[in-house]
Design brief:
Number of helices: 4
Order of helices and strands: HEHHHEE
Strand order of the largest sheet: 1-3-2
Radius of gyration: 16 Å
CATH class of the largest domain: Alpha Beta
CATH topology of the largest domain: Rossmann fold
Number of domains: 2
Largest sheet: 3 strands, antiparallel
Strand content: 15-25%
Helix content: 40-55%
Number of strands: 3
CATH architecture of the largest domain: 3-Layer(aba) Sandwich
CATH superfamily of the largest domain: Vaccinia Virus protein VP39
């Protein structure tokens, strides 16, 4: 998937990915896990009317690659200037990268 994102970007193009993550601070992590498992599914059901719409989210967050590993994956796919910035007490990670100007494919 990362190689395909790079392929479709124009030379010099910027990639930005905003991904949920588990905060690294124990207190924040515990509160966040409670919120994601208990509150967010209720909000999701109320907003989307689909019982399973947000039920997968806690498992998805746990299963996603750690930020430092995802940075390595993006670099391996050929991206440059790869960065990962934790936002909102670490519950979200903004990944940015660039396709080099001379890059093809």
């Amino acid at each position: 998937a990362c190689a395909e994102m790079r392929r479709v970007l124009a030379p010099g193009g910027r990639l930005a990915i905003l991904e949920f993550a588990m905060p690294t601070t124990p207190v924040v992590s515990g509160a966040y896990r409670w919120y994601v498992q208990r509150v967010l599914p209720l909000v999701g059901r109320a907003v989307s009317r689909h019982d399973a719409a947000y039920g997968y989210l806690p498992a998805s967050i746990d299963a996603f690659t750690a930020p430092d590993e995802f940075v390595k994956i993006l670099r391996h796919a050929g991206f440059a200037d790869v960065r990962a910035v934790r936002l909102t007490f670490g519950s979200v990670v903004l990944y940015t990268a660039t396709k080099g100007r001379g890059a093809v494919g």
